[in-house]
Known about the structure:
Blueprint: E1 15-20, E2 23-28, H1 40-53, E3 57-63, H2 66-75, E4 80-81, E5 90-91, H3 97-109, E6 125-130, H4 138-145, E7 153-156, H5 160-176, E8 179-180, E9 186-188, E10 193-199, E11 207-212, E12 222-225, E13 237-241, E14 247-252, E15 254-255, E16 265-266, H6 267-274, E17 280-282, E18 292-297, H7 302-323, E19 334-336, E20 344-347, E21 356-359, H8 361-375, E22 379-381, E23 383-385, E24 393-396, E25 402-406, H9 412-428, E26 435-440, H10 446-454, E27 457-467, E28 470-475, H11 477-482, E29 493-496, E30 499-501
Parallel strand pairs: 7-17, 20-30, 25-26, 26-27
Antiparallel strand pairs: 1-2, 2-6, 3-4, 3-5, 3-6, 7-13, 8-9, 9-10, 10-11, 11-12, 13-14, 14-18, 15-16, 19-23, 20-21, 22-24, 24-25, 27-28, 28-29
Amino acid sequence: xxxxxxxxxxxxxxxxxxxxxxxxxxxxxxxxxxxxxxxxxxxxxxxxxxxxxxxxxxxxxxxxxxxxxxxxxxxxxxxxxxxxxxxxxxxxxxxxxxxxxxxxxxxxxxxxxxxxxxxxxxxxxxxxxxxxxxxxxxxxxxxxxxxxxxxxxxxxxxxxxxxxxxxxxxxxxxxxxxxxxxxxxxxxxxxxxxxxxxxxxxxxxxxxxxxxxxxxxxxxxxxxxxxxxxxxxxxxxxxxxxxxxxxxxxxxxxxxxxxxxxxxxxxxxxxxxxxxxxxxxxxxxxxxxxxxxxxxxxxxxxxxxxxxxxxxxxxxxxxxxxxxxxxxxxxxxxxxxxxxxxxxxxxxxxxxxxxxxxxxxxxxxxxxxxxxxxxxxxxxxxxxxxxxxxxxxxxxxxxxxxxxxxxxxxxxxxxxxxxxxxxxxxxxxxxxxxxxxxxxxxxxxxxxxxxxxxxxxxxxxxxxxxxxxxxxxxxxxxxxxxxxxxxxxxxxxxxxxxxxxx
Length: 502
């Protein structure tokens, strides 16, 4: 199979996949730089890049050309090789695919070569890799690496009126799931995204939308601003449709500099750091290759539009922070977990039990903690292990890294559970260098505190008080001091609650 590049163009470089999960063999057919697999180097590099995105580990490399295989049979030579700068086993995530491709070509060229400096660096080569869950077959992996499985082709909408109408529907879906925040901001509580919509400075009856993960909005993670024209490749935002007529909000993979990032984040840097994949887009003429990404499917439900938009915003936020050098813990393999939800949910009436509102107490504590952490200039993130383990929070950027487990009661059962979770998560997520804190609504007995601290853990406290539909959360001075945050005259965090349906 020949892979597609990130703009949907087929590369003249043939490869195949064999094996069964979790072990596979990726074979690249040889190239001669002219007619046969003339884009061998580009094909190997892009397949290595995509292997990194599925968290593959490279365990072995062999030259498997017919002449070498004949020497293996007749003389027993060893066809395996290993680049000196990339020892195996090699986790491909975070590895420079171009440098690795060059190193493989150089090292492979020396196998059964008479040339002192190495021979052909575009030989038939087989790489052995292992993949973590989820389980997949060889055919599925081959299509994924060729970029032929997930890539959809979209065509830019040609009329500006249609673009404006689609963007209007998208914004209305976001507003439906939001509550007013300070000023003219809206809080998408389910997606943990702040947004602000303003009239466009380009033209009448259009708007610009700023979206971000910070409790104050700024600095915004990404902007979805009305384009100046339909099918304009020079604008960062547009709308395209698939062959069934479904419409999609699109944005280029380019983030302008702000305090959350190290300069501009674009191109391959955006793809790698965000973890997003571009789509093929036609109908816009440009001499420069553009990478377009789906923000949301406008013809899906309002809930789906909000979910997809939220995922896009968080991916942009992650790309910015990683570009700046913020080191996120890297368990094997992690994904950023969904943020906690605050507010209340409505438990429907059942039999003789009337309908009632229930406070998402843990979510309110988490949201209050995030606001305090951000005001101190730090970061609060969540991580999830692929086995399903999810931490409540990790504070980064302070004097020490802190792993937090939040409980809504100080019962013995909750404390036992919390201690076990902190111990388990620190091991499963490779967070042994983090200080482990169990955050409770009150202090347990001194004997229990001593027993917990003897295990290298700490207990800190918070308070939650209700006033109508507002939750007032206060953290103890000892906890704030431990996190490196100011304690003097700390104001309680107030969150206005909203209703949802369970």
